[in-house]
Amino acid sequence: MSNRNAEFFEQAAKVIPGGVNSPVRAFGSVDGTPPFIARAAGTRVYDEDGNEYLDYVGSWGPMILGHARPEVIEAVRETATRGLSFGAPTRAEIELAERVTGRVPGVDMLRLVNSGTEATMSALRLARAATGRDSFIKFTGCYHGHGDAFLVQAGSGAATFGVPNSPGVPEAVVRETLVAEYNDLAEVEALLTDNEVAAVIVEPVAGNMGLVPPDPGFLEGLRALTSKYGALLIFDEVMTGFRLAYGGASERFGVTADLVTLGKIIGGGMPIGAYGGRRDLMEQVAPSGPVYQAGTLSGNPVAVAAGLVTLDILLKENPYGYLEELGARLEAGVQATIDKHGYPASVQRVGAMSCVYFHTGPVRNWSHAAESDTKAFGRYSTGMIKQGIYLAPSQFEAGFLSSAHTEADIDRTLTAGAEAMAEAFGG
Ligand code: PMP
Q1: What is the pLDDT of residues 362-389, one digit of tens each?
Q2: Ligand 1 atom closest to Cα of residue 240
Q3: Alpha-carbon distance 377 to 362, whole Å?
Q4: pTM of the model as a whole
Q5: Rounded to the nearest whole angstrom, what is the distance from the C-alpha of residue 248 to the centroid of ligand 1?
Q6: What percent of the chain has pLDDT over 90?
Q7: Could you tell me how far CA 148 lies from the centroid of its own chain?
Q8: Which of 141, 243, 314, 348 lies 20 to 30 Å from 326 when distance is taken between CA atoms?
Q9: Is 320 an annotated catalytic residue?
Q10: Can 143 be counted among the known catalytic residues?
Q11: Is the Cβ atom of 351 under 6 angstroms away from ligand 1?
């Protein structure tokens, strides 16, 4: 395998902080150098040296149809020839909003933004405005983008790099951020009793501390408690939306939030985000209401075109059953390796999202996830990349399947995984 990645990384670090434009890409927590990606197709990504990797990152979630799906690329190409941005309304935006409002439970109206971070920031502002309350509850190990208010005991890169409270976030801003342990309804109720809470924001399946499913009754409990105490329930479905079902975790678990944040898949790989919810709430957003939120490139025609085709293909092909089968095959295979050798590891999965913990499990919250052997994970991740399997380079990230993955891909991954795990545990 030729490898100029270390050279690129050194060059990049001179002009880009840490050599990357988003922290977890740096492979810092697994002691490696990131491959510099030149192109991708289907389930494969290729680095600048032409090395091929079987991809389970999927651009951190958006690529549910696999990379460079021809219909999506064609839509982008065709739309781009008609102009890249107008800063004015377009018909395609109506279509995208209709695709979402028709199908995601509780979403009567939708506002497009440019990232998941913008979506959660905007939804929180709306929740605070609508309730006239300032504080909100988030869960340890959940990540809701890098907005100041959310950077308290956050997951994903913030957890990976051990900076739960970033310098530069004023204490005054996070004073109203209350934190509970995931899957702990008693803690949530205590906070709701003691504080005037505007909203509870939650990843309905937590994908930023590995992969932690909600305990049975947890989401229903949050729904009941928020209603009881006059707080809004925000499902952050940036990762789970259109992935765990077409209507996201809301559909899969049959629980309807007041506000939902989206991103990733709805842009088909182009930068996008969205927040939506009950009509009476969304009508409070400017210009129909007083809650200000705006964006020069919001509803960008190229991003919207990529998202529309992606959602249409998801509707037409309905890959969710297939993704479930593939996921089950992956999960069973990893579990078999763990059982065979008695490794102190576990595998957790919901649909097309999964994670191998270097922890005996079950991992139900951040306290458990944080006990994982991240050094062993690092050795495993390095072992996988050496065998051409591209995983998120952190214990605290989920892996994503796409409808382009095949059973043969899974089987190859399981073989590589057994070897990498043996290396990780010094076998
Ligand atoms: N919410 C969740 C649940 C996420 O997983 C992410 C990003 N992975 C975000 C918000 C932030 O999205 P973005 O990176 O597009 O700002």
Answers
A1: 999 999 999 999 999 999 999 999 999 9
A2: 3
A3: 17
A4: 0.97
A5: 15
A6: 90
A7: 18
A8: 141
A9: no
A10: yes
A11: no
